[in-house]
Amino acid sequence: MGLETKPLSTLHEKASYNVEDFPVPTGREEEWRFTPLSRLKGLHSGAAPAGGVLIHVDAAPEVTVETVGRDDQRLGKAYVPADRVSAQAFAVFEKATVLTVPREAVASKPTVITLTGSGEGAAYGHILVTLEPMAEAVLVLDHQGSAVYADNVEFVVGEGATLKVISLQDWADDAVHVSHHHALLGKDATFRSFVVTLGGDLVRLSPSVSYSGPGGDADLTGLYFVDAGQHMEHRLLVDHSQPNCKSNVVYKGALQGEDAHAVWIGDVIIRVEAEGTDTYELNRNLLLTDGARADSVPNLEILTGEVAGAGHASASGRLDDEHIFYLQARGIPFDDARRLVIRGFFAQLLEKIELPELRERVLGKVEAELEK
């Protein structure tokens, strides 16, 4: 599998399964300029020593779970790696986890994949989730422990199917995670993604969506809390190449502490043939202390004039003093007022987590960060 190009777009022009088609990043490239390469521990250069991540699947009874070798022909059909780390992960993973939801099946409970780092060396993984036409399922990806980990996750959502995914990055403080999540939506398919990034030393996630038929609907939501010294990077791509599809992106983050750094890149492409597209992306960052930094870059490339809607917005700022004063004037102490404002900042997003126990876990983690 060699180099593949994506013409008509200046945002994402190269994709390949071959590692050697991507030079080792130097940090001067546009796609790597925000990432501290020295903290990737060799994931970008192939120099990382081998390690392990334990994968445990608690599946709904309607879901088929398989562990397959890299020669399985189903792997890599929905996604072509777009950078060197993704290509490296695809080239060296040994076993892949494959989940299949049969046609018209409705999963009776969420399927939870728990990935636990061993704390030794680097690991590479691959997950494929396929929903056949008219199927419905909820999936949780729960990342824990200490790891240096790179992986690709493919979501293939068939015609009229609905997939909801919650990806929780709750790593130990020293973890490094570089991951690509790609969803391929069939005709009238629905995809809902909720990314929560709280733990790890460096986390770089690249969620992307493409469409194989008209009527697809994607909603991508993200919540992150960046503490002192942490680097959290989310790089999104929505590639509209089919008519009458929708996408909505909302990511919000809070940052506190010296050298807390968040990066959000939101790329949306509307190709010539994607008439009737309706898309919007939003990023908000709340800077709670001095020394924190947020980089937010929305990009919208429109190659047709026949769109239903297209827009983006981005803002980073500090707590609103008027909100704090309003609450203090009503007898609420400063620390409690601050906590209430931040909870309000995240409230609308948290409501989208339909699993109460997971919503409470995320809220508890945010509360713990605020106590620091």
Q: On the 0-100 scale, what is the average pLDDT?
A: 91
Overall body shape = globular
Q: Which percent band covers the strand fraction?
A: over 45%
User: Which quaternary structure do these chains form?
Assistant: single chain
List keywords for this structure.
372 residues; mainly beta; 16-stranded mixed sheet; two-stranded antiparallel sheet; 4 helices; 18 strands; globular; FeS assembly protein SufD; SUF_FeS_clus_asmbl_SufBD_core; SUF_FeS_clus_asmbl_SufBD_sf; Fe-S_cluster_assembly_SufBD
Q: How is this structure best described in words?
A:
- This protein is mostly beta strands and 372 residues long.
- The chain folds into two domains: 3-318, no CATH class; 320-372, no CATH class.
- Helices cover 13% and strands 48% of the residues.
- It is built from four helices and 18 strands.
- The strands form two sheets. It has a 16-stranded mixed sheet that branches.
- The longest helix has 17 residues, at 334-350.
- It starts with a strand and ends with a helix.
- Belongs to the iron-sulfur cluster assembly SufBD family.
- InterPro entries: Fe-S_cluster_assembly_SufBD, SUF_FeS_clus_asmbl_SufBD_core, SUF_FeS_clus_asmbl_SufBD_sf, SUF_FeS_clus_asmbl_SufD.
- This is FeS assembly protein SufD.
What's this model, at a glance?
By secondary structure, the protein is mostly beta strands. It has helices at 84-92, 321-328, 334-350, 356-371; strands at residues 3-5, 14-16, 53-58, 64-69, 95-101, 111-131, 136-157, 162-169, 176-185, 190-197, 202-211, 217-226, 231-240, 246-255, 261-270, 277-287, 293-302, 307-318.
